[in-house]
Amino acid sequence: MTEEPSAIEKVRLSGERVESDLMPSRLGSKLDGILEPMSDWFSSILIKEARQAFRSRQFVWTYILQLILVAAWTAIGFSLFQRELGTSLLLGYFIILGFPLAVIIPFSGYRSLAREFDDGTISLISITTMKPRQIIFGKLGSALIQLVMYLSVLAPCISFTYLLQGISIWRILLGLLVSVGGSIFLTIFGLFLAGSFRSRNLGVGVSVVFSIALSFAYFFWIGFCFAMSESSFSRYGSEESLTVAGFVLFFGSTALLLLASVVAQISFPSDNRSTLIRVMLLIQQTLFFGWIGHLLCMESFMDGVPTVILLVVGHYWLGMGFLMCGESTNLSRRVRRSLPRSLPGRLFYSLFMPGAGRGFLFALANVWAAFLIVWFLAIFEQTLFSWEWQGDRTRNKFLIGSFAWQDEFIGMLICVGFVSWYLSLVFLFNRYLLRRFDWDSEGGYGPVISLVFGATLVAFISILSFVIEGAFQSGSFGASVASFFNWYTMSFESSLNLNFFVFVFVFVIQAAFITIYAVLRASDDLLLVAVETPERVLIERLPAKKNTLPVGESIDEIFGELPVRPPGSEDAN
Questions:
Q1: Is residue 53 within 8 Å of residue 142, measured between CB atoms?
Q2: How far apart are CA 218 and CA 179, in angstroms?
Q3: What tens digit of pLDDT does each residue of 93-152 get?
Q4: Out of 166-175, 229-238, 247-256, 370-379, which region has the weakest mean confidence (pLDDT)?
Q5: Over the Cα atoms of the chain, what is R_g?
Q6: Residue boundaries of the structural domains of the chain
Q7: DSSP 3-state of 573
Q8: Whole-angstrom Cα distance, residue 97 to residue 147?
Q9: Based on the number of CB atoms within 10 Å of its own CB, is 274 exposed (0-12), middle (13-18) or buried (19 or more)?
Q10: Mean pLDDT throughout 336-340?
């Protein structure tokens, strides 16, 4: 008894395409043609994480508990609250929504990435065709899907409160903005912690600390909800809008910076891990000065405000510069292939490449650029507001402003000088230790040690100068010398007198010498020479190379979608 050949065997024996009900059509529907490219764009990590999240008991029980609490609070609200019903219901809905958004989702995102390091599966995922950003975006996308699911329970209820009295659309939008934006920020911060602390023993302590921090964040959210329910505003003014815009810019840019850091942490050691992070640092500083410029158009600077702005920017670049000074100086040939060929291009683009010297010059350049920007804003502010006066009062205001601006300029210059001095000391310290003790900077220890040393150095010099200045009598030589090394007091006490000229000889000369020496040492790493791309890599990048498939290895041919090509047919083509 002979068996009848199957449809796939008939195709392979006849060499012709047979239309069968068992075979799906290649054209498909129009919806499939739209969804297939989108499914290829999404990472498989997103599908895996979403399936695991929705099948977990944590999500199921939290979702059911949220439904029960919403129904119970709605019934209690209509039975107990007669006055200000909408405000009371909205307050309860936001408190119920805040727990999964502030605690459950960020901790789940943290554990999803930490589990990959604990089980060792991150190495298996990294060697696939998925890029590091696809892995991180997949885990973040799973958290966003959970956020939408939790939000879908409260969305009809929150919309219903708008129909009641005492609720404005601005209050609802503010609550949703803070809750959703805060949840996304905490989730990204959890991913950053999971990528930074990969040790299993250290991860247990980080998990406990992070869970406690999320609990405090939820209590802060409850306090914010009560404060929002007691406020009687109906619409935001210019000052409130500017404050909200400042918070959005700060937390949004910080979230993108942390996201770029996580992507760099799970990438290969031979990849370029620093360029995207440094671009985000530059963007964050640009957004900060854009916000300051908009604030300047509303009201003028008071005395000391430009120096305070530089103190904030200086502390920011001290922290980022200490981290960059601990990076490894060596660059892989893979990274050096992407360097520009021209000299101006290499001078500019090399600042964004990995390396301790390049990171030091990048931080130093941004500090001095911030000084020039603040100086320009202060001059623009005085010019702008001096035209508001008339007659002799205009001239008097300009002269008074110029005299005050002289001390302000010296204070800002002292602040930038201290930041440059600290960065130079930390860079020279790291350069000495990297060559003597061969730190494992590629493993992530170099930036951490550099940050700890830099923060300790700044705190030690500042505290010691305070102690010595308080121990000696006011106006004595010891107190004066100690105050010269305290940048918090010298930045605001910069009048042109005898003590200032002594400060120039005691501090400025040695600080300038150390800074110039550090810049010369760091400039050795600046001019990088690009290497040629091997011919094998160029061949692999060709589109024809990617689309070529051997005979018999096509999925369509294996499952009978296409007839088998006879040997030698590819040569004829």
A1: yes
A2: 10
A3: 999 999 999 999 999 989 888 888 887 777 777 777 778 888 888 888 889 999 999 998
A4: 229-238
A5: 31
A6: 45-235, 292-535, 536-562
A7: coil
A8: 10
A9: buried
A10: 72
How many Å apart are CA 2 and CA 112, to the nearest integer? 55
Residue 85 neighbours by CB under 8 Å, 6+ apart: 77, 78, 164, 165
Residue 192's closest CA among 284, 98, 277, 285?
277
Spatial separation of the C-alpha atoms in residues 422 and 321, rounded to whole Å: 10
Per DSSP, 553 falls in state -
Amino acid letter, 401: G
- As a whole number of angstroms, the distance between CA 127 and CA 122 comes to 9
Rounded Cα distance, 224 and 500, in Å: 47
Mean pLDDT of 28-47: 65
| Biggest CA pair distance of the chain | 117
Contacts of 117 by beta carbon, 8 Å cutoff, 6+ apart: 194, 198, 200, 203
Take residue 565 and report the two structure tokens written for it.
């090509």
Distance CA 209, CA 203 (A): 10
Q: What is the residue whose two structure tokens read 């997949």?
A: 138
**Across 247-260, average pLDDT:** 90
**What single DSSP character describes residue 530?**
P
Read off the pTM.
Answer: 0.79
Amino acid found at 487: W
Long-range contacts formed by 197-206: CB under 8 A, 24+ apart = 198/117, 200/117, 200/118, 203/114, 203/117, 203/118
28, amino acid identity: G
Residue type, 560: G
State how far the Cα of 63 lies from the Cα of 82, in Å rounded to an integer: 29
Angle of the 85-99 helix axis to the 169-196 helix axis, nearest 10: 10
Which residues lie below 8 Å from residue 310, measured CB to CB, with a gap of 6+? 370, 371, 374, 412, 415, 416, 491
Q: Is the pLDDT of residue 189 over 90?
A: yes
- Long-range (24+ apart) CB contacts under 8 A made by 94-99 are 94/158, 94/175, 94/179, 94/221, 94/225, 94/228, 95/221, 95/222, 95/225, 96/66, 96/69, 96/70, 96/154, 97/66, 97/150, 97/151, 97/154, 97/179, 98/179, 98/218, 98/221, 98/222, 98/225, 99/218
Percent of all residues in the chain with a pLDDT value above 90, rounded to a whole number: 20
The distance of Cα 74 from the centroid of its chain, to the nearest Å, equals: 39
